[in-house]
């Protein structure tokens, strides 16, 4: 099986021109087949507020009403995605920007209304790995933004981490897949106050130990749960750290395997 | 040679939900290989004004400054393009939304500053017909918005009619191409005051006659000049009329050939 890297960057890299340019160079230099997934974050909030649309949050989570979905479609699918694609082309990476609607690549289901109505938010139902593979086989590099569709004409806002893991799971039917989650930390930390206390390798048994010791907590809990879910569904390895983990020189990041 | 239809719709169809839905059904039913090109028009002006960006016009032409380019990228590349793609998917057309930056499909050159500085406006330099053909061969239907790139990371605003004719010329290397320009009239009219005075067929000699008689004037002049330019560069036929020309039943539109 050939290898495929799925790299995710968050809003903090997107926001900052110098960070984005630096990252895109590393991504372009990454050997082999690859897919990029990006969030959009604050840019959408900023433009929404300029348009007089208030960000609605419930329990720290954004509610995507019709107006907010329009802004997300403009910012994630247009402004951010197309600028990333243009910058990658300048670095000789033959990028193609996608939402889940394009080539019907990611179908999702509008989240059912329970205590909270999240609005136009989609939970991933299906990844069209064969369609995505046609792009890869044509030597194009897919660049996904955090938008999916329901197959009936409705775009839906979907978490970029989830898109990353679901696309990786889907592509595991055809490739040996590795995920690279780029974030602000150097990796999963043993001591949250010591940024150099990176745990270099986590497997299932260490994961259980760390959970019991309470070392994995707060925001890291759902992230790692998501990781082991992906690993249990065919993803070979998951890497977490800052963008320099994409270089060969830096081995100070966390690799997670079963 | 296989046939390929390149269909262009303008802002007036995009603006109106019912017109757009009706058109997309016709487009979906169109047999054979096809490409859609769309403008964006008033939606961009509307959102720009909401964001406090004034539309700058010189001699009736929009000046694309950096802020305006951002809005165009959001509206054409995001909001309009991705909603069209999602709607086409619901009609079982496996659409893929593109700017000229995606798969490096349309490279352009920033228009040189002469009497007027048009800003971030690009004149088409090259169409990557082989790259676009990889999508067609994969059974995807390209949907282009009116944005190109310079290959150095800069997106550029480009007239949708020009994108249509240039893509058609490029694809003529591989296909027998026909353009369908959908607009508000039934076709090229003999008498501008009689909407049913459609000239059904224009060839080179009739074109010269019509020019001499002053029947082709104003806005139609550059449109037809553009058409004959495309025909002289490999496009087989060009059709102008309202969207119903895409059906078999209606033959009341203008077909232009050499």
From TrEMBL, chains A, B:
Species: Thalassobellus suaedae
Keyword Iron attached: no
HAMAP family: ArgB
Residues annotated as site: Transition state stabilizer: 8, 223
InterPro entries according to UniProt: AceGlu_kinase-like_sf, AcgluKinase_fam, ArgB, Asp/Glu/Uridylate_kinase
Gene symbol of the encoding locus: argB
A Pfam family annotated for this UniProt entry: AA_kinase
Gene Ontology molecular function: acetylglutamate kinase activity
This protein's UniProt keywords: Amino-acid biosynthesis, Arginine biosynthesis, ATP-binding, Cytoplasm, Kinase, Nucleotide-binding, Transferase
Pathway assigned in UniProt: Amino-acid biosynthesis; L-arginine biosynthesis; N(2)-acetyl-L-ornithine from L-glutamate: step 2/4
SUPFAM superfamilies: Carbamate kinase-like
Residues that coordinate or bind substrate: 40-41, 62, 157
Recorded family membership: Belongs to the acetylglutamate kinase family. ArgB subfamily.
Protein name listed in UniProt: Acetylglutamate kinase
Localization per record: Cytoplasm
Domain Aspartate/glutamate/uridylate kinase residues, every copy: 4-237
Function: Catalyzes the ATP-dependent phosphorylation of N-acetyl-L-glutamate.
Enzymatic class: transferase
Chemical reaction(s) catalysed: N-acetyl-L-glutamate + ATP = N-acetyl-L-glutamyl 5-phosphate + ADP
Domain of life, per lineage: Bacteria
EC number(s) given by UniProt: 2.7.2.8
């Amino acid at each position: 099986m050939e290898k495929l890297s799925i790299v995710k960057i968050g809003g903090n890299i997107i926001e900052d021109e110098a960070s984005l340019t630096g990252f895109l160079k590393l991504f372009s230099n990454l050997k082999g087949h690859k897919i990029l997934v990006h969030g959009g974050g604050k840019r959408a909030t900023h433009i929404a507020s300029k348009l007089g649309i208030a960000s609605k949050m419930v329990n720290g989570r954004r509610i995507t009403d019709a107006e907010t979905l329009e802004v997300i479609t403009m910012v994630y699918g247009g402004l951010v995605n197309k600028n990333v694609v243009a910058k990658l082309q300048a670095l000789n990476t033959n990028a193609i920007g996608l939402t889940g609607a394009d080539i019907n690549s990611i179908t999702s289901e509008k989240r059912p209304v329970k205590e909270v109505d999240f609005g136009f938010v989609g939970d991933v139902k299906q990844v069209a790995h064969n369609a995505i593979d046609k792009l890869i086989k044509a030597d194009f590099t897919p660049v996904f933004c955090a938008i999916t569709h329901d197959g009936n004409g409705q775009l839906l806002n979907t978490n970029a981490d989830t898109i990353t893991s679901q696309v990786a799971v889907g592509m595991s039917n055809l490739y040996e897949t590795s995920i690279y989650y780029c974030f602000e930390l150097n990796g999963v930390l043993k001591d949250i106050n010591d940024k150099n206390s990176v745990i270099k390798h986590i497997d299932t048994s260490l994961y259980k130990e760390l959970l019991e010791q309470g070392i994995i907590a707060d925001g890291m809990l759902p992230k790692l749960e998501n990781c082991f879910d992906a690993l249990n569904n065919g993803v070979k390895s998951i890497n977490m750290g800052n963008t320099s983990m994409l270089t060969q020189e830096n081995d100070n990041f966390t690799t997670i395997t079963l």
